[in-house]
């Protein structure tokens, strides 16, 4: 329906337009704006109500999609997959998150566009250029234009659109808040504990055999893992990153730290292999000085003095594992590390 089919008395009032006429002095005069065509929503309140309900429906769907996003994030397992034709097998969680978030954002945009195209004023207004500085008259005009635009948007009158739009805009940011959880898994107490516990045998990383004191010579460096941890285990990398152990045998008289001596066995000391700077594996040992060196950033620890830091960026000493010998003569752990292993652990646990 066009404005030509509507009685004159039902049409909104037209604004006066000044149209310049081309002549010899001004051959490029402004021809003015074309006649304005009124929309059906401008003259039929029932059509305007239909558009209002459409916009409200889009905003409501956006809210439901946001709730679906959060529900999918909480309920769908990370390792679940689904088949989507013609793409193939996909992560069910990623597919659900992408679909629901896409619908939520699309419906907000579509609702805003439909609102602007059908209910907000579409009258073209030409304004003369003015100086950059704002005169009192210009400021008054801007305020008047703003009030007029607010009035024409019908935001105050069409409460259904306003409320559903505010609801959609309020819920969508929750998607980002929920995603903050993926900055990393909640550590709980996992960083405070390893596989080491009382009675766990020290197993040589190279031979995969339990260690006896006679297997560790003075001045040698041996790497060990907890009994029962195998390389084919699905969580091997996560567990060895916390439980990796280096074993050095010193002369008992060379050990300066009292607790280190008490936690050793016949001069055999066991320390975490994980550097306390950024978690690199320590692999260099100086036999004469009893120093171990991290190859990444040259943090140096003195194994004869509680593995304290004597050089480099590491923030604290290597955690020591208390060891002993069982009835069969094998080296065993007498508990877990007293401190969390690895780098940058807040407040040392």
Write the layout of secondary structure elements.
Layout: H1 40-43, H2 45-75, E1 81-84, E2 88-91, H3 92-118, H4 136-153, H5 159-171, H6 173-179, E3 202-204, E4 221-226, H7 236-243, E5 245-249, H8 258-262, E6 268-272, E7 284-286, E8 291-293, E9 300-302, E10 308-311, E11 320-321, E12 323-325, E13 331-333
Antiparallel strand pairs: 1-2, 3-4, 4-5, 5-6, 6-11, 7-8, 8-9, 9-10, 12-13
Helix pairs in contact: 2-3, 2-5
Gyration radius, rounded:
37 Å
The percentage helix is 25-40%
Helices, by number, come to 8
Low-confidence stretches: none
Strand content bin: 5-15%
Tell me the distance between the termini. 73 Å
| Elements, N to C (H/E) | HHEEHHHHEEHEHEEEEEEEE
Largest sheet: 5 strands, antiparallel
What is the β-strand count?
13
Structural class: alpha+beta
Question: Which strand order spans the largest sheet, edge to edge or round the barrel?
Answer: 3-4-5-6-11
Mean residue pLDDT: 86
Q: Outline, from the CA principal axes?
A: elongated
Commentary on this structure:
- 32% of the residues lie in helices and 14% in strands.
- The longest helix has 31 residues, at 45-75.
- The model has no long low-confidence stretch (mean pLDDT 86).
- It is α+β, with helices and mostly antiparallel strands.
- Helix 2 packs parallel to helix 5 (159-171).
- It is built from 8 helices and 13 strands.
- Strands 3-4-5-6-11 form a 5-stranded antiparallel β-sheet. Strands 7-8-9-10 form a 4-stranded antiparallel β-sheet, with no helix packed on it.
- Strand 1 and strand 2 form a beta hairpin.
- The chain is elongated, with a radius of gyration of 37 Å.
């Amino acid at each position: 329906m066009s404005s030509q089919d509507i009685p004159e008395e039902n049409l909104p009032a037209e604004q006066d337009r000044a149209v310049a006429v081309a002549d010899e002095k001004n051959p490029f005069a402004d021809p003015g704006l074309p006649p304005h065509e009124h929309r059906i929503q401008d003259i039929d309140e029932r059509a305007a109500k239909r558009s209002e309900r459409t916009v409200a429906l889009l905003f409501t769907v956006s809210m439901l999609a946001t709730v679906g996003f959060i529900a999918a994030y909480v309920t769908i397992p990370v390792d679940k997959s689904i088949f989507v034709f013609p793409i193939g097998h996909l992560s069910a969680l990623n597919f659900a998150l992408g679909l629901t978030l896409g619908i939520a954002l699309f419906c907000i945009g579509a609702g805003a566009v439909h609102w602007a195209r059908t209910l907000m004023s579409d009258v073209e207004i030409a304004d003369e250029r003015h100086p950059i500085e704002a005169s009192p008259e210009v400021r008054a005009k801007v305020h008047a234009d703003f009030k007029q635009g607010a009035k024409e948007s019908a935001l105050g009158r069409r409460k259904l659109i306003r409320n559903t739009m505010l609801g959609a805009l309020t819920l969508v940011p929750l998607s980002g808040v929920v995603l903050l959880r993926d900055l990393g898994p909640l550590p709980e107490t996992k960083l405070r504990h390893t596989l080491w516990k009382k009675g766990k045998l020290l197993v040589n990383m190279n031979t995969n055999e339990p260690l006896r004191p006679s297997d560790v010579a003075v001045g040698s460096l041996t790497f060990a893992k907890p009994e029962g941890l195998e390389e084919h285990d699905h969580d091997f990398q996560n567990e060895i990153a916390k439980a990796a152990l280096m074993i050095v045998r010193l002369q008992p008289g060379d050990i300066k730290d009292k607790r280190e001596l008490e936690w050793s066995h016949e001069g055999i000391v066991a320390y975490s292999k994980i550097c306390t700077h950024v978690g690199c594996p320590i692999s260099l040992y100086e036999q004469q000085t009893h120093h171990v060196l991290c190859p990444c950033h040259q943090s140096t620890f003195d194994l004869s003095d509680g593995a304290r830091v004597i050089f480099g960026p590491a923030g604290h000493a290597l955690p020591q594992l208390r060891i002993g010998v069982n009835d069969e003569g094998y080296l065993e752990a007498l508990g877990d590390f007293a401190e969390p292993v690895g780098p940058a652990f807040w407040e040392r646990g």
